[in-house]
Specification:
Helix content of chain B: 55-70%
Number of helices of chain B: 9
Distance between the termini of chain B: 11 Å
Strand order of the largest sheet of chain A: 1-2-4-3-5-6
Shape of chain A: globular
CATH architecture of the largest domain in chain A: 3-Layer(aba) Sandwich
Shape of chain B: globular
Strand order of the largest sheet of chain B: 1-2
Largest interface: A-C, 58 and 58 residues
CATH class of chain B: Mainly Alpha
CATH topology of chain B: Serine Threonine Protein Phosphatase 5, Tetratricopeptide repeat
CATH class of the largest domain in chain A: Alpha Beta
Helix content of chain A: 25-40%
Oligomer: heterotetramer
Structural class of chain A: alpha/beta
Radius of gyration of chain A: 19 Å
CATH topology of the largest domain in chain A: Rossmann fold
Order of helices and strands of chain A: HEEEEHEHEHHEEEHEEEHEEHEE
Structural class of chain B: mainly alpha
CATH architecture of chain B: Alpha Horseshoe
Largest sheet of chain A: 6 strands, mixed
Strand content of chain B: under 5%
Bound molecules: adenosine-5'-diphosphate, magnesium ion
Number of domains of chain A: 2
Radius of gyration of chain B: 16 Å
Strand content of chain A: 25-35%
Distance between the termini of chain A: 40 Å
Number of domains of chain B: 1
Order of helices and strands of chain B: EHHHHHEHHHH
Number of helices of chain A: 8
Chain lengths: 357, 210, 357, 210
């Protein structure tokens, strides 16, 4: 393993220190418990949007803290969910009086820890909600699995919800938007190589020189299937099909009821993409794949979408939700409407995403 | 009777055992997860060890609750809240106790496992830590009803946990990260079931050492 | 070699096609000869800023075409200088009547091809200038070598000069700014792995599992020296020393005289950085190194700069001038003044760099 | 006398030779450069071959100029403008010629090499293509002065080019990409000197074939 790191135990801490000195105008970093938060937090009267998860996906989430996106991000150890105290302390720091919305990627660890945090924050009198991101079509059903993982859609939801929060959406309306945006988004990922977790010191899985993994997550997990290497066009076709041909997806989520102070279960089903839909297309590098190759993927993806009657109205291309040094990419297509587009286009000023200001 | 010191000793021993098994548990997790279970458990119990001295002369309930809170705020991942809740609940069931009779001991484990179930909602056969705990609890209950003494009953329970752990090998995971692998999860032993087995086995060994 | 590509001969073409469909609002792509140009070109009364070079450094240069930066970029084959007809045709396409400034990285191939292009454009009645970027401190002297390579400073110069061109700087003043910014910039790069040129199919050089190359360029060339792997802090110290302790550097450049229609030689010497200087710090990924590791580098770099009395007033952190899939990074420090800062901060809207709009 | 058809044949043969040596030249370039010299030369001469039919029945000057312009607009890198200028200049020196006597042949090569020198400003010992051309030109001049016939003179010239090419091995590069390597460039044969040697050798073989 060759990485630009010092002691393995300091990896996350030192990267956060680097972020803090690099972007003092945009963010601050709190240590023990660790979280990144907006330099101007709390913003009074605005719902605070908080996300978090294991480290190793940079720029997500810490790089998306700032005006128009997240109010705080809680980084765990590499690929390990953060702990409730991080999320709870972050909430207290950035709550501007209008409540806190947790955006939670659907992994058992993240869900359980954020649930505890929401309970703690509520107990302190903070209005909270927790919306699940679960968009990975590589996971087929939610009955015999932990449900779809939260992957590429997370970045888009954070941007859109962050924009709406800036526009002073109240907590309920913001939660509705977050839920809708998540249900509009679908993703699939592939890996050409494994990544190497610093603490493990060796690649998480082995891939032959002529193989790739199809349907990977973002934690170095092996994928749904392994194939012999194919051309960019063929791989893009497989990926696009996994998203576009995906049927309706149903899952039960737990959301918080601020009146009863209890979790309530909701059964949600999202509809497949269909001809005529307008979409945001997001082609993402897993870390080791250069942007030039992403454009080769985007080229074919645009052609396929056109053929299927999907109109790409916005796009994002680059390394935004990564898996350390893994070579590979993911595609996310999110159906849009006027509300989503408006907040996608809204100004954003974070270390990792910036436009309009 | 299990004394407060024995409980403290158990937690200390467990920290050592988990440190020794850090790589083993992580290797199990790299086959069907994200290669961190050993690292997570080790990080958590190192923190527990740091915290223990400050509560070691309170009561067992408080010691266990502190352990749970420490795990919750230092482990993360799935196992953090699950084991954290395990100890929080077991502690809550043993408020103010300075020593435990056989009934208390069962109560401790049962309340802990109930906590796991409430948080993670595993069912038997999901290929999780619950697949080690569930048969272990049953064996403990049966042995106690049978009139076995604490050590013998715990021995049977540990054997059941070991069997439960091994039984996760042919299972297809339906909970946690391993469930994403579908059929590819078959043939691997669940890391959480393994750490649970180690937990119970270390309890037995701690009590045997007296 | 595993890459997201189709036929090797189509790599550059298809990436350009991908860029064209992805960013029709910002850029257009011309094929045969290949160049990327501003969607709104020519901008009347504005000097057209054109750069180019081998492909494989994405997002540079094509990703920097747009408002506030380049008017056109000419991509060659992977790691191979483009040809004069590309540069000349690009100039004709984007010239808004105020002349053309070529920003040329100092490689024999780029220099020779851009010289020919400048001659051709001048012969067609276009006022031209050509400013050399040569900032790589890994190359010690210009007497016994082809001179310092153009590396990280290129990105900064393109941004600054692009901003000034937008503000309607005339060609002479713009050339002076470009020359100054280049002379203010110094860089050094390291590699943890080689990159793999698609047409070659195998890594350009071999590096042991515990080695790194110090003083690399951006074309997969081996570096100045090979060392056993070190910590991020140690590597940052070596890199910072290479830049900060670097003495005065003298070279002879050729610039165009629009009156005589001839090349004239100029001897230029730039001064070392010194305590009290304000700098832009640019920590760049070579492609395969994730941004999280760049923050570990930045953290130490900020500390070192502070110790040396260098004040970092702006920074840029990410993959901007890459070397395909190479793992590694480069550091650039550019001394600034009010003029440079003004145009660094000016709005920019390109596929690869965007702020202020 | 060298005919126009022989010049066309030379260029066709050269395209083949460069295709055969694509990997070899690229390997030489990966040791001290950026691993593209063979790819560059092959791309350029494939284009030349496409263009040749349209000018093959004009004059030698025009054929060579067209070759030069094609190389300039298709090769890129350092070798594109250098070899492009070589052929542009050799063509300009032979305006309207339909065949070449020994003096013309020398003129062709000398003008070409002058073009390389003007563009790249190499001096002897810089470890470039010039280190093959310079001794080759000298040998050709001496042989012609000596009264050798075309073939014999060219044979001597090719031998000198080969020697010049090999002499680049111990040199430390001072021009082009290899110069960045400093002392690490020592011990490797220059790719451009190698392609230049192949160019001259192919000319000889083309003339010998009659
Ligand atoms: N829903 C659940 N209920 C009970 N146990 C679970 C559940 N999900 C995961 N686990 C247990 O957690 C273990 C994984 O823990 P760990 O690797 O530390 O967390 P993570 O999966 O977040 O990386 C699994 O081996 C399994 O035994
Ligand atoms: N200044 C120069 N003068 C003469 N020949 C040069 C000069 N610079 C480079 N060369 C020749 O060019 C060759 C490299 O060509 P090539 O690999 O095609 O271009 P690049 O170096 O741009 O990749 C070198 O081997 C050398 O012979
Ligand atoms: Mg984990
Ligand atoms: Mg795990
Ligand atoms: Mg080259
Ligand atoms: Mg080369």
């Amino acid at each position: 393993m060759k990485k630009l790191i010092n002691a393995i135990d300091d990896v996350v801490k030192e990267q956060l220190e680097g972020m803090a000195v690099a972007h003092p105008d945009l963010i601050k970093v709190h240590f023990e418990p660790n979280f990144v938060y907006r330099a101007d937090a709390p913003v009074s009267g605005k719902v605070a949007v908080i996300s978090g998860g294991g480290s190793g996906h940079e720029p997500m989430h810490g790089g998306f803290v700032g005006m128009g996106m997240l109010d705080a991000a809680c980084p765990g150890e590499v690929f390990t969910s953060p702990t409730p105290d991080q999320m709870y302390e972050a909430a207290k720091m950035v709550d501007g009086g209008a409540g806190v919305l947790y955006l939670v990627k659907n992994y058992t660890g993240d869900v359980l820890n954020f649930e505890t945090a929401a309970e703690l924050a509520f107990a302190e009198g903070v209005k909270v909600q927790s919306i699940l991101i679960d968009d990975d079509t590589a996971v087929k059903d939610s009955l015999y699995t932990a449900g779809r993982r939260g992957v590429g859609t997370t970045v888009l939801v954070e941007k859109i919800v962050g924009g709406a929060a800036e526009a002073k959406y109240p907590l309920d309306k913001l939660s509705d938007l977050a839920r809708k945006a998540n249900m509009y988004g679908r993703s699939i990922g592939i890996a050409l190589t494994s990544c190497t977790v610093p603490a493990a010191g060796k690649p998480t899985f082995d891939l032959g020189p002529n193989e790739f993994e199809f349907g990977i997550g973002i934690h170095g997990e092996p994928g749904r299937e392994r194939f012999d290497m194919k051309t960019a066009d063929e791989i893009t076709e497989m990926m696009a099909a996994a998203i576009i041909d995906d049927g309706p997806y149903t899952r039960t989520v737990r959301e918080w009821d601020n009146d009863s102070g209890e979790w309530v279960e909701k059964k949600l089903t999202d509809d497949p993409l269909k001809s005529g839909d307008e979409v945001i297309a997001f082609v993402n590098s897993m870390g080791g794949t250069p942007v030039s190759e992403l454009y080769a993927i985007y080229r074919k993806l645009a052609e396929i979408c056109k053929g299927k009657g999907l109109k790409i109205v916005r796009n994002l291309i680059g390394p935004y939700i990564t898996s350390l040094d893994m070579a590979g990419c993911s595609i996310t297509l999110m159906k849009t409407d006027a509300e989503i587009l408006k907040f996608w286009d809204a100004p954003v000023k974070t270390p990792g995403l910036r436009w309009g200001v | 009777m299990v004394t407060r010191d024995q409980i403290v000793q158990w937690l200390n021993n467990l920290a050592e055992v988990l440190a020794e098994n850090k790589e083993y548990l992580t290797d199990l997790d790299s086959a069907i997860g994200d290669a961190d279970h050993g690292i997570n458990m080790n990080r958590g119990f190192k923190k527990v060890i740091e915290k223990l001295p400050s509560v070691a002369d309170t009561d067992i309930g408080n010691i266990l609750k502190t352990t749970g809170m420490t795990l919750i705020s230092s482990v993360g991942g799935a196992s953090g809240p699950l084991y954290g809740t395990f100890f929080m609940r077991s502690g809550m069931a043993l408020q103010a106790k300075q020593e435990l009779d056989d009934g208390d001991l069962y109560q401790m484990l049962e309340s802990g496992v109930e906590g796991i179930v409430q948080r993670g909602r595993p069912v038997l056969g999901d290929k999780t830590m619950f697949d080690a705990w569930s048969p272990a609890l049953e064996a403990l209950k049966a042995a106690t009803a049978n009139g076995d003494n604490t050590i013998t009953a715990l021995e049977k329970s540990v054997m059941a946990a070991e069997q439960g752990m091994k039984d996760t090998i042919p299972m297809q995971a339906r909970k946690g990260r391993a469930s994403y692998l579908g059929e590819r999860s078959i043939g691997h032993q669940d890391p959480g079931a393994t750490s649970s087995y180690l937990m119970l086995k270390t309890l037995l060994e701690t009590l045997q050492a007296e």
